[in-house]
Amino acid sequence: xxxxxxxxxxxxxxxxxxxxxxxxxxxxxxxxxxxxxxxxxxxxxxxxxxxxxxxxxxxxxxxxxxxxxxxxxxxxxxxxxxxxxxxxxxxxxxxxxxxxxxxxxxxxxxxxxxxxxxxxxxxxxxxxxxxxxxxxxxxxxxxxxxxxxxxxxxxxxxxxxxxxxxxxxxxxxxxxxxxxxxxxxxxxxxxxxxxxxxxxxxxxxxxxxxxxxxxxxxxxxxxxxxxxxxxxxxxxxxxxxxxxxxxxxxxxxxxxxxxxxxxxxxxxxxxxxxxxxxxxxxxxxxxxxxxxxxxxxxxxxxxxxxxxxxxxxxxxxxxxxxx
Length: 323
Prior knowledge:
ODC_N, ornithine cyclodeaminase, domain 1, six-stranded mixed β-sheet, ODC_Mu_crystall, alpha/beta, globular, Rossmann fold, Ornithine cyclodeaminase family protein, 11 helices, NAD(P)-bd_dom_sf, single chain, 2 domains
């Protein structure tokens, strides 16, 4: 351990690794044989004013842990509800090697995983891409940026629509060919009906829209919920879709959208597609029914992106992870 660990701020993380490069880092980890099923289960520790989320992972030459704090009272204080730090270690000596802003890491890795999981479907056409995003927070904006980064040069994103509960609070997102509209309105329903991609990045605990609004060739990404009794998508949608998950066991433990659809009999566990199967080409994404990717977030994703960021910071061409 050095006397002074390097600390990579949110701004530095954004400078070092583009959204497209983050997607490529996730894909490389999976193509090189990493199995998300081997990732340690994250844990939650209650404290007086909230809780800690502890997310460790151990891959190749690096190991690390994200320590995130969740403080429900922070909104009234004008502070982020979720804060934290990522600590990267050498896998053999377990000596700390770097500290990284956890919020920036999460904002980068979550959409990277989402887009990696559905990338073949995004790139199989060259027509303009119509995108609807439920939510207006960092993950909503991050998914938009990552989608743009990955499809750039192949197809254009047109008609971007953010659907939020309080449009006036997110007016800054509006711009040329970008709308901000209210949730639960006829306008929102029409936007979903026309969408090629629907991203759900909210704190909702019940479905955001009806299953029959989603086109048969649409891609739906849901990242907002990670509790077994909360969901952004209804069972009917998952029942008519090809459902991709990070890891089947994790989905059955943490992803309410999947858990409740299985309980309601619309989804068979054996039909769930692990994301490595998509990334490696072992499973082709459907063209005759919706593709749904449901994510809860896993520790390995933070480690892969943290390692890639530090590799760039230290002048390496690419991550030094070995699988």
